[in-house]
Amino acid sequence: MTFIKELTKGLIKDNPIFVLVLGLCPTLAVTTSVINALGMGSAATFVLLCSNIIISMIKGITPSKIRIPVYIVVIASFVTIVDMVMAAYLPDLHKSLGLFIPLIVVNCIILGRAEAFASKNNVIMSIADAIGMGLGFTLSLTLIATFREILGAGTWLGMRVTPMSYDPMLIAILAPGAFITLGFLMALMNMIKEKK
Amino acid sequence: MKYYLKLGFILFVFCAIASGILAYINTLTAPVIAERKAREEEETRNSLIPNADFEQKVTDQGMIYYVAKDPAKDELLGYTFIAADVGYSSTVQTMVGVDPEFEVLGIQVVDQAETPGLGANCTSPSFASQFSGMSINDLYVDKDGGEVASLSGATITSRCITNSLRESILDVQDEDQIGGEQ
Questions:
Q1: B177 pLDDT higher than 80
Q2: A1 touches chain B (CB under 8 A)
Q3: CA angle B19, B24, B25 (to 5 degrees)
Q4: Chain B partners of A29 at a C-beta cutoff of 8 Å?
Q5: Do A36 and B152 touch (CB under 8 A)?
Q6: pLDDT for B181 beyond 70
Q7: For residue B115, which residues of chain A lie inside 8 Å, CB to CB?
Q8: B window 84-143, beta carbon within 8 A of A
Q9: Does residue A26 contact residue A44 with C-beta atoms inside 8 Å?
Q10: pLDDT digits (tens, 9 = 90+) for B126-145
Q11: Statement to judge: residues B29 and B73 lie in one domain
């Protein structure tokens, strides 16, 4: 039961972006198009999963005074491994994602989950937490990117969805558009939560 | 004191293990990546000037360029080289093919890390295709009075690509004339 609970809490109850408000830097940067959001989301989910597993495994042998540097070493190593392996064997994916991979190191969702969850729970629960949080992150990014791409470029996943006469609002793709969209979606999320 | 030395040592062990793993994976992937890059560059060259033999040459400034010749008739088809300049948030590298009169045959952005959604659109075919047929005098962005339509919201990236193309074409042109006189 708790496994399912940990798995689904990232979607709405503890959504990393709209509720925990973690990882906003990559959120604002990559949500200019849906494909970027999906790519960033899946790469971050993979790193989160690996780092949660290792960190919950080494929690017994890590002195608490140096836990943060140890976590960062673990996370940065996984990010570098993903970067190198992807560049060698999945070049097409690396071309579209390459830009975002270094950003994952500084994604505070991963360090945040390591500190708040994986360092206190066993491996199985940490896997559930990583998958749930990763999915919540990916879906939230996709949602923000959907609004920004349709308003700012008139496309969704690269396909044209607005009539040709629609003149795209460039501001939706620029940084202010990210803040405005995020604010509206957060308000909407709070409204839904309060009704419950 | 002893306690802090112990902490430092533990951290050192973690870092040593991590760098060991990374070094091992690097030795596995580095040759694959280098080979793929070389192959991609060759493919790009062939798509810019098809059916040609390429001969590598270096200018006095150390810029590498390739002379394309028709293998059957030993006729000069053009030149390809990589033009690079600093854009908005990265160095943009563009491979360009020119004909013997130094008119652009085609360009392809091979490496960039510009803003996604804005400058990064320079890799799109609709931006790249407009360069075909342009000569040095056309190679200015529209805001500078040239023929190149800049990407919306990314004038800096467009200008960087356009200027780097113009300058490196001039470099190769100079080199070619010196070579021709000798």
A1: no
A2: no
A3: 100
A4: 116
A5: no
A6: no
A7: 32
A8: 113, 115-118, 120
A9: yes
A10: 888 898 888 888 888 888 88
A11: no
Q: Are residues B32 and B119 in the same domain?
A: no
Q: What is the pLDDT of residue B101?
A: 86
**What is the extent of the structural domain holding B39?**
1-48
Residues B123, B106: Cα–Cα separation, whole Å:
13
- B14 in reach of chain A (CB within 8 A): yes
Inter-chain contacts counted by CB atoms under 8 A, chains A and B: 66
Q: Dihedral angle at the C-alpha atoms of A150, A90, B64, B27, nearest 10 degrees? A: 140
- Same domain as B43, residue B59: no
pLDDT reading at B182 higher than 50: no
Give residue B158's pLDDT.
92
Shared-domain flag, residues B98 and B157: yes
Do B80 and B157 have their domain in common?
yes
B101-129 pLDDT, tens digit per residue, is 888 998 988 888 787 678 888 888 888 88
Stretch A39-67: mean pLDDT? 90
**Domain endpoint, select from B28, B48, B68:** B48
Taking the Cβ of residue A92 and every Cβ of chain B, the question of whether any pair is shorter than 8 Å is answered with no
Domain count for chain B: 2
CA distance A128 to chain B (A): 25
- Residue B43 sits in the same domain as residue B64: no
**Together in a domain, B25 and B10:** yes
Pair B69, B149 in one domain: yes
